[in-house]
Design a protein that fits this description.
heterodimer, A: eleven-stranded mixed β-sheet, 11 helices, B: alpha/beta, Rossmann fold, 12 strands, 39% helix
């Protein structure tokens, strides 16, 4: 057993393939946070006064808050005055109007990451918004989407062109007072994606945003807002990477989803921020607030996340099931290797009648990784016939990692049916040997077993990305076979 | 094709095999019998290359090669197949997908082209008949939710697809009712082709009524204490393993 554990550990020494730095001239503010920095960010973006005021309100509220410390993760408190809150690659004054005007170095960066931005090379049927540090550098397929009335642009552009929509929905799901990191984000957020799908429209292609942290000592605070009007359908995917650095970098994003009557939103994340090295040095602190509001009857919000990166993850994509018969789903694979820590899960808040939620969480721990599932299922007084099914599985690889489960259930309506199933298993020497004895090599065997474990979640991903996710898992578990 | 000489092995510091000598020729069926704890399963696992079993002395030659130098997957690709006593479940990994990966690993090793999905399914349907297995089982995850009998039949089915040179059956008969036992025995008999060799490890002589062995070896405290033809199995059926104790006592 000892030697097979060793082999496993060898194999787990991963290589991070997105860890390079792009040399570009950046427009970066000095480190530190005060009202002036917030006004500066707001001014750089030419924001209307109401938004500047909203940021300042959030900032003042944030000053009164403490960082939450209930999560099962440990890390030194970031020095919020040492972070640069704005960094943008320098470009022509008005920003690129088309891909031809985008700095070739940036295009090259995305090529290297496997996200070619030239539309002709794009995966068929996927529109991409690329966010580089604090700003969006390019959005593809905008015109084609516009034909269907779908708005897909950077958040900054939305503030300029669709201020009424931004004003109506910004902070309506995650208020500026929501939590420490959400308030910080509300004060300093720089860019992100904005999506509006009009009534009755099925978005004709997958939308995706690719987030890249490049500059050192910066934080990334993006804000994404997706509004699906009555009867519309949209599927959105985000991917994230960052260079390898010895310092920890903070990423505190907010994502708000609004599904009106009969609307469906599918939101998928493949999170591969730099996880730190094998000794736990460096890596991204990924403290993210994601929440969807099933505001209308018969609406549905489905979260799928593949979390393989980041040094520390603190993230609970949630659904407020306000509309009658609304449906919330959460499918998650979280992998922690080396010294990575994750405290992740979801909240399903049942408020409407006949609401339904499904939670499938798969945690994989290897090396010295620590993986916690934390989930809340809450059924309000008027939520007649609420149904929840939670399944929470942990897979341990080797004997120095840990898995935890913290399920919370609160029901105020006696008609609720809430089910919770949990399993913990070890990637067995038995399973591995069974594969070897059939002639399957060790690395293939581990990938096979892990992919089998994650299958229920992978199949929820849009098809183009399911294969990517599988590959990413393989890379994350890759290393020399002992 | 298989020659075991003076094999000693231990598990977790405890000596289990204390000098095994065995020669198996092409197409021969050898039964390894013995009471619980005699070292039968250890022998099967040592031959398959499980790393918690430590070989402390002796040699094993397989088709002229030093078997003990080969990694478990190399042994498998070279045609050594172990039908497990307790086949594991691997959730989410489809039976067919797994078996195709295994077959192609073996074929690559033999320098044969990989089979495509169509040819594979054709082969699989043909081999399912060997064990009278339902095609539905193929759509499920490996051994997940299989009954004990289904798991054992799945082992024989995999053997039929992979066509090994040396098949080691580790107590494949244990826990089977008589009908399942007959199906398993029938499967094994169909795979006897005069070239493929079998090592059948069993506690009970029952299986040997259906699969006739060329030689029977009785293991006791990690050594062979009796050897003979199939009649030895019947003798054990009648008199039990206690009879060997008396024999051993009388000899010493």
């Amino acid at each position: 057993m000892a030697s097979s554990t060793e082999q496993l550990e060898n194999r787990l020494s991963q290589r991070y393939k997105a860890g390079f730095v792009t040399e570009v001239d950046s427009d970066t503010v000095p480190p530190g946070l005060d009202e002036d920095v917030i006004r500066l960010i707001s001014a750089k973006k030419g924001e209307p006064e109401w938004l500047t005021d909203w940021r300042l309100k959030a900032y003042h509220h944030w000053l009164t808050m403490m960082r939450p410390n209930w999560a099962h993760v440990r890390f030194p408190e970031p020095d919020y005055q040492a972070i640069r809150y704005y960094s943008a690659p320098k470009s022509k004054k008005d920003g690129p109007k088309s891909l031809d005007e985008v700095d070739p170095k940036l295009l090259e960066t995305y090529d290297k990451l496997g996200i070619p931005l030239h539309e002709q090379k794009q995966l068929a049927g996927v529109a991409v918004d690329a966010v580089f540090d604090s700003v969006s550098v390019a959005t593809t397929f905008k015109e084609k989407l516009a034909e269907h009335g779908v708005i897909f642009c950077s958040f900054s552009e939305a503030v300029q062109k669709h201020p009424e929509l931004v004003r109506e929905y910004l902070g309506s799901v995650v208020p500026h007072t929501d939590n420490f990191f959400a308030s910080l984000n509300s004060a300093v957020f720089t860019d992100g994606s904005f999506v509006y799908v009009p009534r009755g429209v099925r978005c004709p292609m997958e939308l995706s945003t690719y987030f890249r942290i490049n500059a050192a000592q910066t934080g990334q605070f993006e804000r994404t807002l997706i509004i699906a009007d009555e009867g519309s359908h949209v599927s959105y995917l985000e991917g994230c990477t960052a260079p390898m650095r010895d310092e920890n970098q903070l990423h505190a994003a907010v994502v708000e989803l609004v599904a009106l009557e009969g609307a469906h939103i599918k939101y998928s994340t493949v999170q591969n921020w730099y996880p730190g090295d094998e000794n736990g040095k460096g890596g991204i602190y990924n403290f993210v607030t994601k929440r969807g509001d099933c505001r209308g009857d018969d609406s549905k919000i489905s979260w799928t996340q593949i979390e393989t990166g980041s040094a520390v993850t603190w993230k609970y994509p949630s659904c407020i099931l306000r509309g009658d018969r609304s449906v919330g789903e959460f499918y998650s694979v979280a992998l922690t290797n080396h010294w990575q820590q994750a405290d992740t899960g979801t909240k399903m808040i049942h408020l409407g009648r006949d609401t339904k939620s499904t939670i499938v969480s798969k945690g994989i721990s290897a090396g010295h990784g620590s993986n916690a599932y934390r989930g809340l299922v809450k059924v309000g007084r008027d939520a007649e016939n609420a149904r929840n099914h939670t399944q929470c599985d942990s897979l341990l690889m080797g004997d120095t990692c840990a898995a935890h489960t913290f399920p919370y259930i609160e029901t105020k309506n006696p008609s609720a049916v809430v089910e919770h199933e949990a399993t913990t298993s070890r990637i067995g020497e038995d399973q591995l040997f069974y594969c070897l004895q059939r002639g399957i090599g060790e690395e293939d065997a581990v990938n096979m077993i892990v992919n089998g474990f994650c299958k229920e979640v992978f199949r929820e991903l849009p098809m183009e990305f399911a294969v990517e996710a599988q590959k990413l898992m393989e890379v994350s578990l890759e290393g020399a076979v002992g | 094709m298989l020659e075991i000489k003076d094999l000693h092995a231990r598990v977790e510091g405890k000596d289990i095999l204390n000098g095994i000598d065995l020669a198996v020729g092409d197409g021969e069926v050898h039964a390894i019998m013995g009471p619980n704890g005699s070292g039968k399963s250890t022998l099967a696992n040592v031959l398959a290359g499980r790393d918690r079993f430590e070989v402390t002395r002796g040699s094993v030659t397989y088709d002229g090669e030093n078997l003990l130098d080969m990694a478990p997957e190399e042994r498998a690709r070279a045609g050594v197949f172990l039908a497990f006593q307790y086949p594991v479940e691997i959730p989410g990994v489809n039976n067919t997908y797994f078996l195709k990966a295994a077959l192609n690993a073996v074929r690559r090793h033999r320098g044969e082209p990989e089979v495509d999905a169509m040819d594979f399914m054709k082969l699989v349907r043909e081999k399912l008949k060997v064990v009278h297995m339902d095609e539905d089982l193929l759509k499920r995850a490996i051994n997940e939710g299989f009954s004990g009998g289904e798991k054992k039949r799945n082992e024989i089915f995999q053997m039929a697809v992979l066509e090994p040179r040396l098949a080691i059956l580790d107590e494949t008969d244990s826990g089977l009712d008589i009908d399942a036992l007959k199906l398993v025995a029938d499967g094994v008999n169909r795979l006897r082709d005069g070239k493929r060799s079998f090592l059948i490890v069993t506690h009970y002589p029952r299986l040997l009524q259906y699969v006739e062995p060329d030689r029977v070896h009785v293991l006791r405290h990690g050594r062979f204490v009796a050897e003979g033809d199939k009649d030895l199995a019947y003798e054990l059926e009648r008199r039990g393993y206690g009879w060997l104790d008396e024999k051993e006592a009388a000899a010493s």
